[in-house]
Design brief:
Radius of gyration: 16 Å
Structural class: mainly beta
Distance between the termini: 19 Å
Number of helices: 2
Number of strands: 10
Shape: elongated
Helix content: 10-25%
Order of helices and strands: EEEEEHEEEEEH
Strand order of the largest sheet: 4-3-2-1-5
């Protein structure tokens, strides 16, 4: 991962050679590409971090419900906008709809990208893993 891909509070996987993979939350990003992660007393490099893929189970844990057809998810609300995540091959299509038009649409694959999309849509939602 690149430091430029991350924001504070993003979830990712820390590749610990001794203890195995651990889910961590980014707490600080430094100019030298070092990352301070929650649950660690020291900085790690971006080379030691990998993104977490979005799964249907993770979406269900976060209150999204399966719609009658396909693998379409929806149930987040932001004021009058409806948020949907639709499975498209290996990616998810993240949509914000104002009731008539899609006012935001982007492809995402990883949890940190979902966190960024929610932030841009001004939805204060903490992702549960």
């Amino acid at each position: 991962m690149k430091a430029a891909d991350l924001m504070l509070d993003d979830w990712c996987i820390y590749k610990d050679m001794q203890l195995g993979d651990r889910v961590v939350k980014v707490k600080a990003i430094y100019p030298n590409k070092k990352i301070e992660a929650f649950g660690k007393n020291f900085s790690v490099t971006t080379d030691e971090l990998t993104p977490i893929p979005i799964t249907e189970d993770m979406l269900k844990k976060n209150g999204l419900k399966r719609v009658e057809y396909g693998v379409e998810f929806g149930n987040y609300k932001s004021k009058d906008s409806k948020i949907k995540l639709i499975k498209d091959f290996n990616n998810w299509i993240f949509k914000v709809n104002d009731g008539i038009y899609d006012i935001m649409r982007c492809e995402i694959t990883y949890v940190h990208e979902l966190q960024h999309a929610l932030y841009l849509a001004k939805i204060d939602k903490k992702i549960k893993l």
